[in-house]
Amino acid sequence: MRALDRWLQRWRIAKATPFIRDGDRVLDVGCFDATLLAGVSARIASGVGIDPEAEPRREANYALERSSLETAALEPRSFDALTMLAVLEHVPSPAETARRCFELLAPGGRAILTVPHPLVDRILDVLMALRLLDGMETEAHHGYDPAETRPVFEAAGFRLAREQRFQLGLNRLYVFEKPTASS
User: Fold this and answer.
1) What is the CATH number of the domain that holds 112?
2) 174 pairs with which residues across the strands?
3) What is the mean pLDDT of the chain?
4) Could you tell me the pTM of the whole model?
């Protein structure tokens, strides 16, 4: 990753990590190099990072697995927080992904996502052509409209806790909560 890639990655992580609570069991979907998990490891109970290109390894309280949300052998209701930063635009079925997230989260758990606007692909193409960043699999984007995120996750059973635009409005942060039995 080039410096601009890292800077954009850190910006997304900085938007997401305040919604991870102390003591959470965290699943980072699309973890890449575990930067998010390494950054929160001191305050979480445990973490799992999954990514089709991850180098499997175990750290003090988190592990990386080479897998995807669809293929990972994960127990239902075993996480308190699930992060997907710049991942949803890569999945072929956002509705199936939202249902799987709901299944994996414990009651009261949070799904924390960042979703770029499709215009970002054009910007990334230019920045990659100028060799200012490497980008990550922009050819695998499905033209996903971030406005679909709320209805897709609410249909899976989540309730929206927070939505915010950032990066000049070209990216959105979503925080969804899985209802508890009493809510």
Assistant:
1) 3.40.50.150
2) 113, 163
3) 87
4) 0.87
